[in-house]
Amino acid sequence: MNRRGGDGTATGRARGDQDVVEATRGRLIVSCQAYPGETMRDPRTMAQVAAAAVAGGAAAIRAQGAEDIRQVVAAVDVPVIGLIKDGADGVFITPTLEHAIAVAAAGAHVVAVDGTRRPRPDGLTLAKTISGLRERTGGPGGRPGGPGLSAGVLVMADCGSLDDALAAADAGADLVGTTLAGYTGERPRTDGPDLELLEQVVASVGVAVIAEGRIHTPTQAAAALAAGAHAVCVGTAITHPTTITSWFVDALSGEA
Ligand SMILES: CC(=O)N[C@H](C=O)[C@@H](O)[C@H](O)[C@H](O)COP(=O)(O)O
Protein backbone atom coordinates (compact mmCIF):
# COMPACT_ATOMS: atom_id res chain seq x y z
CA MET A 1 0.00 0.00 0.00
CA ASN A 2 1.28 3.41 -0.85
CA ARG A 3 0.68 4.80 2.59
CA ARG A 4 1.78 8.37 2.99
CA GLY A 5 1.85 10.79 5.81
CA GLY A 6 2.50 8.46 8.73
CA ASP A 7 4.88 11.09 10.10
CA GLY A 8 2.47 13.90 9.27
CA THR A 9 4.78 15.40 6.70
CA ALA A 10 3.68 14.05 3.34
CA THR A 11 -0.08 14.00 3.46
CA GLY A 12 -0.47 17.13 1.40
CA ARG A 13 -2.24 18.70 4.31
CA ALA A 14 -3.62 22.04 3.36
CA ARG A 15 -4.95 23.57 6.50
CA GLY A 16 -3.74 27.07 7.17
CA ASP A 17 -1.94 28.66 4.28
CA GLN A 18 -1.10 25.64 2.17
CA ASP A 19 -2.44 25.47 -1.31
CA VAL A 20 -5.22 22.95 -1.79
CA VAL A 21 -4.59 22.75 -5.50
CA GLU A 22 -0.93 21.87 -4.98
CA ALA A 23 -1.79 19.42 -2.21
CA THR A 24 -3.96 17.37 -4.56
CA ARG A 25 -1.81 17.43 -7.69
CA GLY A 26 -1.52 13.90 -9.09
CA ARG A 27 -3.25 12.46 -6.05
CA LEU A 28 -6.40 10.62 -5.01
CA ILE A 29 -9.43 12.33 -3.52
CA VAL A 30 -11.94 10.06 -1.82
CA SER A 31 -15.63 10.93 -1.78
CA CYS A 32 -17.33 9.72 1.41
CA GLN A 33 -21.08 9.86 0.99
CA ALA A 34 -24.01 7.78 2.15
CA TYR A 35 -27.43 8.29 0.67
CA PRO A 36 -30.78 9.05 2.29
CA GLY A 37 -32.15 6.08 4.21
CA GLU A 38 -28.85 4.16 4.30
CA THR A 39 -27.40 2.81 7.54
CA MET A 40 -24.08 4.53 6.97
CA ARG A 41 -25.75 7.92 6.64
CA ASP A 42 -24.35 9.22 9.88
CA PRO A 43 -21.73 11.97 10.10
CA ARG A 44 -19.69 9.96 12.64
CA THR A 45 -19.57 7.03 10.25
CA MET A 46 -18.55 9.21 7.34
CA ALA A 47 -15.83 10.85 9.44
CA GLN A 48 -14.47 7.39 10.29
CA VAL A 49 -14.59 6.34 6.66
CA ALA A 50 -12.78 9.55 5.71
CA ALA A 51 -10.07 8.97 8.31
CA ALA A 52 -9.62 5.42 6.97
CA ALA A 53 -9.25 6.79 3.45
CA VAL A 54 -6.64 9.29 4.58
CA ALA A 55 -4.74 6.49 6.34
CA GLY A 56 -4.65 4.75 2.95
CA GLY A 57 -3.18 7.78 1.22
CA ALA A 58 -6.11 9.98 0.18
CA ALA A 59 -4.90 13.54 -0.38
CA ALA A 60 -8.33 15.08 0.16
CA ILE A 61 -11.86 14.07 1.09
CA ARG A 62 -15.14 15.00 -0.55
CA ALA A 63 -18.07 15.07 1.86
CA GLN A 64 -21.77 15.83 1.61
CA GLY A 65 -23.94 17.63 4.15
CA ALA A 66 -23.04 20.33 6.67
CA GLU A 67 -22.65 18.01 9.66
CA ASP A 68 -20.65 15.45 7.68
CA ILE A 69 -18.34 18.26 6.51
CA ARG A 70 -17.89 19.53 10.09
CA GLN A 71 -17.07 16.08 11.44
CA VAL A 72 -14.83 15.12 8.53
CA VAL A 73 -12.88 18.39 8.84
CA ALA A 74 -12.37 17.60 12.53
CA ALA A 75 -11.30 14.03 11.81
CA VAL A 76 -8.72 14.47 9.04
CA ASP A 77 -5.72 16.66 8.31
CA VAL A 78 -6.22 16.96 4.56
CA PRO A 79 -8.38 19.38 2.57
CA VAL A 80 -12.11 18.76 2.48
CA ILE A 81 -14.23 19.39 -0.59
CA GLY A 82 -17.75 19.98 0.69
CA LEU A 83 -21.13 19.97 -0.96
CA ILE A 84 -24.75 19.90 0.07
CA LYS A 85 -27.13 17.88 -2.06
CA ASP A 86 -30.68 19.13 -2.22
CA GLY A 87 -32.89 16.75 -4.19
CA ALA A 88 -31.73 14.09 -6.61
CA ASP A 89 -32.33 15.49 -10.07
CA GLY A 90 -31.93 18.72 -11.93
CA VAL A 91 -29.54 21.09 -10.18
CA PHE A 92 -28.99 19.37 -6.83
CA ILE A 93 -25.29 19.66 -5.93
CA THR A 94 -24.95 22.80 -3.79
CA PRO A 95 -27.63 24.38 -5.98
CA THR A 96 -27.84 27.88 -4.48
CA LEU A 97 -25.58 30.55 -3.04
CA GLU A 98 -27.10 29.91 0.40
CA HIS A 99 -26.13 26.23 0.16
CA ALA A 100 -22.61 27.27 -0.90
CA ILE A 101 -22.28 29.60 2.07
CA ALA A 102 -23.48 26.80 4.37
CA VAL A 103 -20.78 24.47 2.95
CA ALA A 104 -18.11 27.11 3.60
CA ALA A 105 -19.50 27.78 7.08
CA ALA A 106 -19.19 24.06 7.86
CA GLY A 107 -15.44 24.40 7.29
CA ALA A 108 -14.89 23.02 3.80
CA HIS A 109 -11.68 24.17 2.09
CA VAL A 110 -13.32 23.77 -1.31
CA VAL A 111 -17.00 24.30 -2.06
CA ALA A 112 -18.27 21.98 -4.79
CA VAL A 113 -21.23 23.43 -6.66
CA ASP A 114 -23.31 22.42 -9.66
CA GLY A 115 -21.21 23.68 -12.56
CA THR A 116 -23.69 23.10 -15.35
CA ARG A 117 -25.31 25.73 -17.55
CA ARG A 118 -28.79 24.82 -16.29
CA PRO A 119 -30.91 27.41 -14.47
CA ARG A 120 -30.28 27.39 -10.73
CA PRO A 121 -33.13 27.32 -8.22
CA ASP A 122 -32.22 30.76 -6.78
CA GLY A 123 -32.03 32.32 -10.24
CA LEU A 124 -28.35 33.26 -9.88
CA THR A 125 -25.80 32.49 -12.56
CA LEU A 126 -22.79 30.38 -11.64
CA ALA A 127 -20.64 33.52 -11.89
CA LYS A 128 -22.89 35.34 -9.40
CA THR A 129 -22.87 32.32 -7.13
CA ILE A 130 -19.08 32.24 -7.11
CA SER A 131 -18.67 35.98 -6.67
CA GLY A 132 -21.32 35.97 -3.93
CA LEU A 133 -19.49 33.21 -2.10
CA ARG A 134 -16.20 35.08 -2.43
CA GLU A 135 -17.70 38.26 -1.08
CA ARG A 136 -18.62 36.29 2.01
CA THR A 137 -15.52 34.15 2.35
CA GLY A 138 -12.59 35.71 0.55
CA GLY A 139 -10.70 33.51 -1.90
CA PRO A 140 -9.30 34.68 -5.20
CA GLY A 141 -10.57 38.20 -5.77
CA GLY A 142 -12.60 38.24 -2.57
CA ARG A 143 -12.07 39.93 0.74
CA PRO A 144 -11.02 37.66 3.57
CA GLY A 145 -13.34 36.35 6.19
CA GLY A 146 -17.11 36.87 6.16
CA PRO A 147 -18.83 36.44 9.53
CA GLY A 148 -18.39 32.89 10.76
CA LEU A 149 -16.68 31.79 7.58
CA SER A 150 -13.13 30.80 6.90
CA ALA A 151 -11.26 32.90 4.39
CA GLY A 152 -9.94 31.74 1.07
CA VAL A 153 -12.37 29.01 0.18
CA LEU A 154 -12.02 27.62 -3.35
CA VAL A 155 -14.81 26.62 -5.74
CA MET A 156 -15.04 23.33 -7.64
CA ALA A 157 -17.60 23.31 -10.45
CA ASP A 158 -19.18 19.88 -11.05
CA CYS A 159 -19.69 19.74 -14.81
CA GLY A 160 -21.46 17.47 -17.27
CA SER A 161 -19.93 18.54 -20.57
CA LEU A 162 -17.13 20.48 -22.21
CA ASP A 163 -19.40 23.52 -22.61
CA ASP A 164 -20.16 23.40 -18.90
CA ALA A 165 -16.48 23.28 -18.05
CA LEU A 166 -15.61 26.19 -20.33
CA ALA A 167 -18.45 28.27 -18.90
CA ALA A 168 -17.52 27.33 -15.34
CA ALA A 169 -13.90 28.35 -15.81
CA ASP A 170 -15.11 31.65 -17.31
CA ALA A 171 -17.41 32.08 -14.32
CA GLY A 172 -14.41 31.94 -12.00
CA ALA A 173 -14.29 28.32 -10.78
CA ASP A 174 -10.91 27.37 -9.33
CA LEU A 175 -11.33 23.71 -10.26
CA VAL A 176 -13.66 21.89 -12.62
CA GLY A 177 -14.80 18.30 -12.22
CA THR A 178 -16.27 15.81 -14.66
CA THR A 179 -18.61 14.80 -11.82
CA LEU A 180 -21.85 15.18 -13.75
CA ALA A 181 -20.79 13.60 -17.05
CA GLY A 182 -23.51 11.12 -17.92
CA TYR A 183 -26.05 12.65 -15.55
CA THR A 184 -27.25 15.73 -17.42
CA GLY A 185 -28.11 14.34 -20.85
CA GLU A 186 -25.16 15.96 -22.62
CA ARG A 187 -22.84 12.97 -22.39
CA PRO A 188 -23.47 9.21 -22.46
CA ARG A 189 -23.36 7.43 -19.12
CA THR A 190 -20.24 5.40 -19.84
CA ASP A 191 -19.53 2.24 -17.84
CA GLY A 192 -16.34 3.68 -16.45
CA PRO A 193 -15.10 7.29 -16.42
CA ASP A 194 -15.80 9.50 -19.44
CA LEU A 195 -12.16 9.79 -20.44
CA GLU A 196 -13.04 11.33 -23.79
CA LEU A 197 -14.69 14.27 -22.06
CA LEU A 198 -11.86 14.47 -19.56
CA GLU A 199 -9.31 14.81 -22.36
CA GLN A 200 -11.40 17.51 -24.04
CA VAL A 201 -11.76 19.48 -20.82
CA VAL A 202 -8.06 19.18 -19.96
CA ALA A 203 -7.17 20.46 -23.43
CA SER A 204 -9.59 23.37 -23.27
CA VAL A 205 -9.83 24.90 -19.82
CA GLY A 206 -7.13 26.73 -17.97
CA VAL A 207 -7.94 25.50 -14.48
CA ALA A 208 -7.22 22.24 -12.70
CA VAL A 209 -9.49 19.39 -13.78
CA ILE A 210 -10.66 16.76 -11.31
CA ALA A 211 -11.63 13.43 -12.89
CA GLU A 212 -14.72 12.23 -11.05
CA GLY A 213 -17.55 9.86 -11.79
CA ARG A 214 -17.67 6.08 -12.24
CA ILE A 215 -13.95 5.54 -11.63
CA HIS A 216 -14.22 2.00 -10.33
CA THR A 217 -10.71 0.54 -10.56
CA PRO A 218 -7.14 1.65 -9.84
CA THR A 219 -6.41 1.17 -13.56
CA GLN A 220 -9.18 3.62 -14.47
CA ALA A 221 -7.87 6.09 -11.89
CA ALA A 222 -4.38 5.88 -13.38
CA ALA A 223 -5.84 6.32 -16.88
CA ALA A 224 -7.61 9.49 -15.75
CA LEU A 225 -4.36 10.90 -14.45
CA ALA A 226 -2.59 9.92 -17.68
CA ALA A 227 -5.35 11.73 -19.59
CA GLY A 228 -4.28 14.92 -17.86
CA ALA A 229 -6.45 15.10 -14.75
CA HIS A 230 -5.03 17.23 -11.98
CA ALA A 231 -6.41 14.75 -9.44
CA VAL A 232 -8.77 11.80 -9.38
CA CYS A 233 -11.83 11.57 -7.15
CA VAL A 234 -13.28 8.14 -6.37
CA GLY A 235 -16.44 7.61 -4.34
CA THR A 236 -18.53 4.48 -4.80
CA ALA A 237 -15.68 2.04 -5.46
CA ILE A 238 -14.01 2.92 -2.15
CA THR A 239 -16.74 4.09 0.20
CA HIS A 240 -20.06 2.55 -0.82
CA PRO A 241 -20.08 -1.06 0.40
CA THR A 242 -23.63 -1.73 -0.74
CA THR A 243 -22.72 -1.07 -4.36
CA ILE A 244 -19.38 -2.83 -4.14
CA THR A 245 -21.09 -5.87 -2.64
CA SER A 246 -23.64 -5.89 -5.45
CA TRP A 247 -20.81 -6.00 -8.01
CA PHE A 248 -19.53 -9.21 -6.42
CA VAL A 249 -23.00 -10.68 -5.98
CA ASP A 250 -23.80 -9.99 -9.63
CA ALA A 251 -20.52 -11.59 -10.71
CA LEU A 252 -21.36 -14.73 -8.75
CA SER A 253 -24.82 -14.91 -10.25
CA GLY A 254 -23.43 -14.43 -13.75
CA GLU A 255 -24.98 -10.97 -14.19
CA ALA A 256 -21.77 -8.92 -14.22
C1 LIG B 1 -23.70 12.37 -9.94
C2 LIG B 1 -23.58 12.58 -8.46
O1 LIG B 1 -24.56 12.80 -7.79
N1 LIG B 1 -22.33 12.53 -7.94
C3 LIG B 1 -22.11 12.71 -6.53
C4 LIG B 1 -21.31 13.88 -6.29
O2 LIG B 1 -20.91 14.25 -5.24
C5 LIG B 1 -21.72 11.46 -5.78
O3 LIG B 1 -22.91 10.72 -5.60
C6 LIG B 1 -20.65 10.54 -6.40
O4 LIG B 1 -20.51 9.43 -5.56
C7 LIG B 1 -19.30 11.20 -6.56
O5 LIG B 1 -19.35 12.14 -7.60
C8 LIG B 1 -18.16 10.22 -6.89
O6 LIG B 1 -18.47 9.49 -8.04
P1 LIG B 1 -18.45 7.91 -8.02
O7 LIG B 1 -19.28 7.47 -6.85
O8 LIG B 1 -19.04 7.49 -9.34
O9 LIG B 1 -16.99 7.47 -7.88
TrEMBL record:
InterPro entries: Aldolase_TIM, NanE, RibuloseP-bd_barrel. It catalyses: an N-acyl-D-glucosamine 6-phosphate = an N-acyl-D-mannosamine 6-phosphate. Pathway: Amino-sugar metabolism; N-acetylneuraminate degradation; D-fructose 6-phosphate from N-acetylneuraminate: step 3/5. Its EC number is 5.1.3.9. Keywords: Carbohydrate metabolism, Isomerase. One of its GO terms (molecular function) is N-acylglucosamine-6-phosphate 2-epimerase activity. Pfam families: NanE. SUPFAM superfamilies: Ribulose-phoshate binding barrel. One of its GO terms (cellular component) is cytosol. The keyword Transmembrane does not apply. Gene3D superfamilies: Aldolase class I. The keyword Transit peptide does not apply. GO terms for biological process: carbohydrate metabolic process; N-acetylmannosamine catabolic process; N-acetylneuraminate catabolic process. PANTHER family: N-ACETYLMANNOSAMINE-6-PHOSPHATE 2-EPIMERASE-RELATED (PTHR36204). Converts N-acetylmannosamine-6-phosphate (ManNAc-6-P) to N-acetylglucosamine-6-phosphate (GlcNAc-6-P). Belongs to the NanE family. This is Putative N-acetylmannosamine-6-phosphate 2-epimerase. It comes from Georgenia muralis. The gene is nanE.
